[in-house]
Give the backbone structure.
Amino acid sequence: MYALQPEDLVNQRVLDCPGGPSGLVAGAIEREIDMLAVDPQYSETAEVLEQRGRGDITLTIDKARKDPALQMTDADYKAFEQEKQNALAAFIHAYRLHPERFVSGSLPELPFDDGAFDLVLSGHLLFVYAPRVLGGIMVNDAFDLDFHIAAARELIRVGNEVRIFPTYAFTGEVRRQPWVKPVMEALRGDGHHVSFLASRWEQQGHVDFNDSLRIVRCREISG
């Protein structure tokens, strides 16, 4: 998603926000990469997160099977489910053994100092949790444009570089999600360099607008 290779993260302090029940930090630990994850769910026990994760996987697979746009075979669905189960198992193992790597917190206010990280990765929150009429998955505007701008500003506050994926509309017609442009304008107005970075990973056949939004801090943030 982020156009990165493991070697790109050597000697980098990295944050995954929101981390969720994914295997990203577990993989980083195996490769001796300095990575933390932050998510409001991390106030819960491993047992609660494992049960919740298994339920989410079941719902995701059931929903995918009912989507006529997805032309996947039974073997594809089984492989997809197994990948998710493997990622959940890796997450739970790391969560139990390395609790210091998983910090409870949520946007738009993170519990980290300014510039605490070299790189911040943020996947499947911003632009996805927008209203459905704007290409997101929400039936309301709980995560409105003001939240998106505040969240992006908070990510670049704690990191020297931020990569956000995806930037396309997650639902509806194929297009760039409409809030990408105003978020970019706000961050550029703050003095940061903002650009698109082509992703090397395709999700559900998305090939148009398949980019990460890359934000690089260009000046010190003053309080």
Remarks:
- Residues 46-97 form one domain.
- The first strand starts at residue 13 and ends at 16.
- The mean pLDDT is 92.
- The helical segments are 24-30, 46-65, 74-97, 145-158, 180-189.
